[in-house]
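S.,

As promised, the iron/sulfur cluster run. Input:
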Amino acid sequence: AIDPNFETNREHVGEEDGVAVWGPVEPPDKQGIRGTHVAVDFDICLADGACLEDCPVDVFEWVETPGHPESERKASPADEDQCIDCMLCVDVCPVDAIDVDPG
Ligand code: SF4
Ligand code: F3S
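Predicted complex:
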């Protein structure tokens, strides 16, 4: 499962399309965690898609990760600012790749 303390335990290595990237990032095998309020561990996500289907405010969008061992696309929390903290995505992800921190 995603580490809920990733902001402490990982290094903020940059942004991609306005979404924070937390390392380590070593493509294609290591893609890191993306997002802050809504965070997705790209190395755990296997492109199930339930988060994209179920989020009531369409926070997620697909990004391509060619060559990653789990899946070649990932759910990026592109519109995490819109999140209403319903926690549905956390509940439906089959591999616990998502952390939402209402803080
Ligand atoms: Fe969307 Fe709810 Fe997840 Fe926020 S907590 S990203 S609103 S499904
Ligand atoms: Fe990935 Fe889980 Fe969404 S596997 S696509 S973060 S439901």
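Residues 38, 55-57, 59, 83-89, 100 surround iron/sulfur cluster (ligand 1) (CB under 6 Å). Strands lie at 12-16, 19-22, 33-34, 38-41, 61-64, 73-76, 98-100.

- D.
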